[in-house]
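Quick one:
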Amino acid sequence: MKRINCDVAIVGGAVAGAMLAANLKGSGLDVVVLETQPEIPPLKRGDLLSPSTVKELARLGILDKFLSRGAVQLHRWVALGPERETLADVPLAATAPAPYNYCIALPHPLLQEALVEAAMEADNVRFLRGLRATGLIQNPDGAAVGVRAAGRDGPIEVHARLVAGCDGSSSIVRQHAGIETEIETYPYSYLMLTCERSPDQPADQQTEIWGSEGFCGMFPITPEHVRCPVQAGPGELARWRSIGLPAIHDELKARFPFFESMRLMEEVFYSYKILTHHARSYVADGVILLGDAVHITPPYYGMGMNMSMRDAHHASALIIPLLRAGDTPSAAALKPYERQVRNFNEYVLTASRLYGKVAAAHIRTHAEVEAALEHSLALDPGAMSIIYGDYDAPPPSDAQIAALRRGQVAAA
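Output:
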């Protein structure tokens, strides 16, 4: 059996894993990334990065890798109501300080490619594709000291001082570390479409539509194209599959503005199931979890990838000095990472659930939307300032999370 030795074994080389590796480059730590997929998959979601993430990419010196691949800058976010009225019109320059006071958008495969390239440039990072993690290597005390994997050339053992689980909602690392979670599946899914941008929609504007037909988003991912998640209720995806994309497009022309002047670019029916969970712990002896392995948020606010990348920022800030000092990465030693990120992630999860209750509720009139917003902070600037805040901003307190659940914004 082949054996590799390293300091950090990162299981999962998508956004969370590649971002962690990019944060660890130049650290002097020997890093191995194990990724199941032999190549980056053509996902049609996860295209938007917040201003705080743009700032982080600039800090790491890798923002140009995204811009050179055609990332577009988004400067405005607009929500339209059931009567096509403007519910919110937010200039992103008001949400973050210059110069990184804008979002960027890039088709997910290109975004992931940029992150992987940034990680692989480092002499201390090895990126191994086509390896599926099968379990943890544990010492007699139960602490993880590596990971077992299987690939085309047979089994492999990667012995490491620390295992980082970045391997998604069905995380092998989380399961074998004995960290419990409850994954909830939402009753609705999204049909993910890519269309030519309507001339009526500005190229630097994110648009959301709330109404009697549910939720639809129109998010530019190139100067010419927009990604359009369209909410599908129980049974609706099956009906849509049966009628085909041209007929669906005709339906959407009647249901939502802009579709009349947008040409559908899809040839394959692609849907996205919405999951949510928040694991009971982020750490175990020899194990640290990031991204979807430890939390998944509903897609409102567009924070899923940004939360993963924020996790990587804070995980690396702890991992580097801990391992450089030769300390044992016990659960207790890793716990400061969890304290830094858990409340922020819980705040985003809570706010996103509340947002979805209004945005995706098939509300028919503006008056009904206004009434619903009285019990939700979906469009509240105070809540947004926390969600889109700087990576190193103090995390929300337990009291702020409790207030959010009551429909209030509390001071820190």
